[in-house]
Design a protein that fits this description.
mainly beta, Jelly Rolls, 11 domains, 6-stranded antiparallel beta sheet, 85 strands, 5% helix, 34% strand, secreted, Soluble scavenger receptor cysteine-rich domain-containing protein SSC5D, disulfide bond
Length: 1464
Amino acid sequence: MQQVAMAPLWLMVLAVGGALAASKQEKPVQHERAERQAAPIACSGSFTNQTYGTIESPYYPNDYYNGANCLWYITVSKGAIVQLVLQDYVIEDGWDFLFIYDGGSLASPVIATITGTGPPTIYNSTSNVVLLKFKTDGSITERGFHLDFYERFYQGAPPTLPPDDGPDDCPSTRIYSSEGYLSSPGYAAGYQNYTNDLHCVWEIINPFGTSFNIWFIAFDLECDADFLNIYDEGVFHTYSCTMDDRFACNITTTGPTMTIEFTSDADTTAKGWFLGYESSKYTNLQETAPQHTGDDPWPGRACQIEPPPEPDCYTGTGADYRGRVNVTENGYTCQRWDSQTPHFHVYSPDRFPQYGLEENYCRNPGNGYKPWCYTTSPSVRIEYCDVRECSELTTPAPVFEAPPAWNDTAGNFTECGGQLYLDAGSIASPGYPITGYPKNAVCVWTIIDPHDWGFRMIFEDASMECGYDYVTIYDGGLDGPQIGRYCDRETCALESTQSTVTVVFTSDSSITGRGWKIGFGSMYIGTIYPAFPILNYQPCTSVIDFALTSPAPGTPSGTVVPYVDVLLVDGNGYNTGLVEVFYNGQWGSICDDGFDMADADVICRQLGFTGAEAFYEEAYFNEGHGPIWLDELACNGDESNLAECAHQGWGIHNCQHKEDVGLECTDFQIRLADGDFDHGRLEVYHAGQWGTVCDDNFGLVEANVACRQLGFTGALASQPTAHYGQGTGPIWMDDVKCVGNETSLHQCDIREWGSHNCDHSEDIGIICDAPMTTTEMVTTTPPPTTLFPPNGIITFSSFSVRLVHGGPNYGRIEVFVNGTWGSVCDDFFGPNEARVVCQELGFVDFISWSGGAHYGQGTGPIWMDDVSCTGKEPSLQFCQHRGWGVENCGHHEDVGVECQGPDRTLIACDFDVNTCNFTSDSSADFLWRRRTGRTPSSETGPSFDHTSGNGYYMYIEASSPRQRGDIARLWSPVFDAYGTHCLQFAYHVYGDSIGALRVLVGNDLVFMRNTSQGNMWHDTKIDVTMNQDQIIFEGEVGIGWRGDVAIDDVLLYSGSCQSNAATEAPTTPVPATTIPAVINLGDYDIRLMDGGYSYGRVEVKVNGEWGTICDDGTGANEARVICRELGFPDYETFHWGAFYGEGTGKIWLSDLKCTGDELTVRGCNHADWGVNSCTHAHDLSVVCKQEIVVRLADGTDGPNSGRVEVRYDGIWGTICDDGFGAADARVICRQLGYPDFGTFHYGAHYGPGDGPIWLNNLQCTGFETNVEQCTHDGWGTHGGCTHPHDISVVCQGSVATPGASVDCDFEQDQCGYYNYKFTRNQGPTTFNLTGPDADHTTGSGYYMYTESAELSPGDAAFLLSPTVAPGSPARTCLQFAYHMYGADVGDLKVYVQNGTSAWYQPFDRSGNQGDVWYTETIDLYAPVGQVMFIGIRSTTATGLTGDIAVDDIKHFWGPCNLGRKTSD
């Protein structure tokens, strides 16, 4: 085979593109042409101040010529527009184009791009200037076009607007242009209202150095709330409200630069604004004269503004408020009044029409203090709304400061950034190449190809401080994928796939350099200006992980950095070590200068601990590596993330690594055990374990500190000598000595952690109690009122109600006010009051109420007395009472209630405020983290939370230093609950390296996802059985860093999930005497009986008794769940009718209905346990699929050698050497993960084994992936072979590293293959009569294919393997499956790189091969570096039946055909 040197990948793609261009010259002429012109004629022209005219393509109505490039300028009278009537056009579709520009230059907005053929069409400009461009390629020609143009004047309707990206697009950019139009986001996209909370800035620079005329075409803003501000070299114009209906008004600037700023608030929006601008003076460089000059009526016409509308505010209590505010004081969105989710309530619009309960607008039913609403947060039921009193509303004159220049930190460089509508040109760093670029530069260029093609770009020069200063190039806008990030490189080239490219340049605060220059040109242009031959340059290499978007080093501390990750490394335990910070794609350390406990506390809390134990200076835990990111850190101590703290700036320091700071964090907590909420044995959590406190010297001072830490105001007594029983575990604290002003017991002096001379008979207990008196809580006695006046000292923004000392739906009523729980007096308490309490707690109604401390006497304040409700209030806080803390009662009068369904909620957590008592398992490999916004790594993890899009969630970070298999666990509290409950939560499992998300209830696995579920949040509900258990979320790291897993919005409530309700019981029930009164699933188990290891009758254990499952309605899904629960990968078949004999005892399950995704049979729908109409003649049986595993035992020549043993029926056995050959050895070594076999040995070379001889006369082809796929005499059939004939093998190489192999069946992901226009697919392709209907591997899996609809005739798609680890032998074997079916199929080519720079082509197949998968096996005679598959659509394709697919790519060491060679 001839081997030729080939260029790198990007050159190959260009070569393919060149081949396509070559093939395009050969396009067949589809129609006979009546006439052909031998030579082109002149085109282009200028039509000035004409009221009408005609423009035609050259030679119309005969064919135009190849290579045409025509321009026509049309100008009509001032104040008019151009109307174009395209009467006829036939233009080669997709290759030749007519462009219509709304203005006099190629940088003007494009009104239309016309190709192909169609009906007559009318186009309108927005000004009196239009530019037409007609461009043809080098091959087929057509009839062309004929259009007429007319001068038209407005009659009140606005002009056609240039398109924008919709209402959410808020550009902040610099524009170099002498004319154009600008609008509020959304206005040009169908006249949509702009959105809330916008801050848009445009800086517009006239390249001709003259001033601007600005004229308004439309203007409608929320009055005195949203503003358009125009800054003109010190002159400030501001506009709001609504313009009158006259045509427009005008501003003339004083200079060539203006800044336009648009702001909107969080409230009402409006239609927006639309303005035009142009150079006010004519220069000889401009293509057209100004259209709005001093002779026009524009100057001096003031913008008449309507008076402001009525403000959105309330008077009195807001009972008659009918405004549109729908946000609470703490920023929660209101729940719709006609919705019962997430909060059940009585105020539905149909029941209370008098209150105006529209949509989710704030109202005041029940006459509260001010308008309020239920919130959409499951954890916050009711809050007052963020709506103002009308008496507080004023209209001050708006005061604005001019927004900073686009690059104010970079000096006054006008060349730093901008928006360019150019098909060719160049950009450079500020000051290049004379002065060098400035420090702290942040420059953004947006380059748009007028032809809507992609760009070729060349770094003609690049010299920067590499590692600190960068050029980042995005394929599209800033939200598009990064092509790469570059610093100091030789001249190189790159390409975009989009018609827009964004270039961002950032520099830090230290060293600068000469800078860089980039040339660019549209790939549409045959001859690029300035010309640069891209094939002469090497591809550019990104120098940093281009998934990162952090600001550059040296960014001032004021720059917003939403989140940074921290780690402790090189410590003595999980809670100690050197502090490292992940910033700008790199881990670095923190200098100890100025570091204190406030800084330490912030870092430790971010890591999931309760605080810091100590910090260590001078590299106590070894010196770090990489940058020193922070110096003079100055946290307040209450920050939730290190990025919120003040500091000198990222990367700014005067330190060395010998000053790196280290930490010791603590997860110290305390609790009361075996007592009640306010008394019990004192236990402390330290080093990941609960333990006790010795009573030596522990007195009232120490008890006071502990009680205050628990949230009480003090202690009544300490109780020595295990008063509340002896504890277990370590005795953590002894000889505790507190001063009395500590906020945590952790701050008191002790012997040493775990050092004591006690036993558990000396465990200390405490009694906490500190009821506040009325005089302490209320400075004045307020009159009876619905709510305490807002100027009082009582606060109830977090008002809550609970039931204590009872059960799930009954108990003493306690309310949370001013940060303290207290009780309610029973005076005048009746059914209306009981109803309000129960409905506020989410129950349907009350059953009864009880006074006289029926549920025990409370402690603390008695918050409410003489409560009087109507029964319609949404919350007890809205009822009449004497006043907060004003009472004449004692706790012997505490009132309680019993409520009526629905069942209670045990936990509802959205993680927005805290972790809701979820705790991370500190003994695991790493911790779950609470986070807002996106995770640090790209292509994995969520970008926002599930609840609101701007809140918090919990997640695991899979990037370094995490390793495959590392586990993190998040524990809920232990719930005092039994029986069926519904667990509901949202999960986000996205990335190509996912490990697993598992959910356990106690020790039972109830949910698992171990593959990517896409970049989205998923909601799930699961019926679980509680037995005083806790919920455990377990995250596992996969094979790479794209494996982040997240959860949010966890809800657990008693009863079955409504969406997973059990099916109805059979119509013929079992007699009631046979149905257990109580079902205990604590010892639940499952087994197969009277069959074998993997087959038999299915039996389950319930209530301590084994029983069977009825086969009624069972099928594949049920068999699959049963086999997976038993530990098998899947089922093989199932049998009805007691196939393996009838069982005995109970028939536990009937009418079993599974989806196939459940983890246990218990998770499927079924009739009640023990309820059925079956007999044992209908017992269900299954046959499960075994996973055949091999291993090497007793090898003496390394881990890759040994006796071959295989596990079958759960028992390890050997393989007889009869008929064993090289192909068999290859399959075994490949199954073990080695690239190939080295040799094999007969006659128990590594000693005889024991157990069964499972296989004899093994016959493999060498291409199987498992010995199970090979033929043999049968499992356990060995023809008298004995263990002295056990086969042994020696495998070649080492176990393959995941991702470093060519092998891929595409079942889980793309195995690291890079693809361009190849698609991973399952099932049939998009169109009929082409492509496979299923994959090659299993018939139900995945494969890669090229979609014809995405490729033009002659276009190419490619699939490039990862680089294979070096060390492969000179001769190897490549095998793959391919499918080429359809009338338009082109070519499939395979290229192999020999490990250096040379590529060769061992495979080429063309044309329709039929609707069948083929397997190709190729001997390769050089080491393999990479493999690339190129699919090319036929150049003669006329339809969409040209799909090409590949699957099951395998690479073997050694030759393909091994025969049946023997060894020793």
